[in-house]
Amino acid sequence: xxxxxxxxxxxxxxxxxxxxxxxxxLNPRSRVTVLGxxxxxxxxxxxxxxxxxxxVLSGAVEMQRVADCVKKIHRRSVQExxxxxHVAALAQALHTLESGSPKGARKVVFLLTDGRxxxxxxxxxxxxxxxxxxxxxxxxxxxxARTAGVQIFPLGFGARxxxxxxxxxxxxx
Length: 173
What we know:
The protein is 39% helix and 16% strand. The chain has 173 residues and is of the alpha+beta class. The chain has five helices and four strands. The strands form two sheets. It has a two-stranded antiparallel ribbon with strand order 1-2. It has a two-stranded parallel sheet with strand order 3-4. The two termini are 18 Å apart. Helix 4 links the parallel strand 3 and strand 4.
């Protein structure tokens, strides 16, 4: 989560956590992808950015490559789309897991966020209550994750973590 609801220190903590998760305790055959997300508010922004493409952590070189690309994560500006589109983030994560994962691989998403969905300025969610429309789409993404056997581990960051939302992510996958 690179959204404006997080402080620069919160995002730095996310970077540290992401680096730790990617490099410590995972199976050396694990395939890791790191995505950053904010929103697309109709100004040509990308809601999701791939910072680390799928990388198998088979050795020190690959682990260093992931450590380096994780450092590019940053808190987004308004011009970059700094709201929070969990739908786009989860859809991209599920697509990444679907394409190229070895048969029988354990599929896990670590979602680092404050849990606060905010797509109020994102035109792709219609003209009405955009957050409500996005929540419905998020529920569909969670159903897809559950059906595909994808586990979601939400990790809360920031002073205003929305624990009920994090719990929905955890039980949804």
